[in-house]
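Predict both folds.
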Amino acid sequence: METKKSMVRLILMKVLGVILAVFFLAITVLMIGYPLISLVSTLDGVDAKVVEAKVCVNCKRAGLYNLTVLVDDQKFKNVRAIYPQWGGHAQPMKGDVVKIWPQIKPRVAAVETEGWAWTMVGGLLLFGVVMLEFVFLAISLR
């Protein structure tokens, strides 16, 4: 009887650990993804002018947009843009300048990170790393 209880408890704890790990992993991807995209597009990106901006389905709160951008008289469609909710950049507008990456066939775009925005990007990166530790902690539940 005692071994059945301990076995059921072990199974429940492992299931709970997996559920928590998946939850924390999703937060980790979001918190580490934005700083990496921002870093790459700011340091290695090219300036592009926004021609058209569409909200991704159910992603307005997350700040994800599909952009059509213009670079040196070339139009690129379906460039995914991440817009932070600080510094007057709530959503992309026609005529805004964003940094796109890679230069040849751009996939992502972000507002240029400068000044105090680096502090926010660094904070998000650190928060993402802490959440990654929670993933490992949740997996090790006994």
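Second protein follows, with its predicted structure tokens after the sequence.
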Amino acid sequence: MAKWTLNGVQFDISPQRDTGWYPELVLAKQHIPNSNTTLLQVGGRQSEIRKAEGFTKSSTVLQTLIGSVGNSVSLTDHHGNTNTVFVESVITEEVMDITNMTTGTFKYTISMIKVS
């Protein structure tokens, strides 16, 4: 596991499940009826995006992740790079964990867009 900090709250992520920053192409597809080809219009690149997954038993981390959706926040990744990111989505799922049945363990997936 590696450590990330989101708005001052530190949490674990799985480095193997981190995509790193990558840009998406701006792409429009158009298919004309009865045609055998598709017209593609490529118009540059969008802001860089990143997805990562991890596990947490901390309710503070869970609430910070969920509360960050739709907001621009400060993110410091496990490489020590700090960026302002817009959190597009956080998907959580409770998983069975015999070591901590009362609190629960949550798997999360976070999707972000780099602002700066």
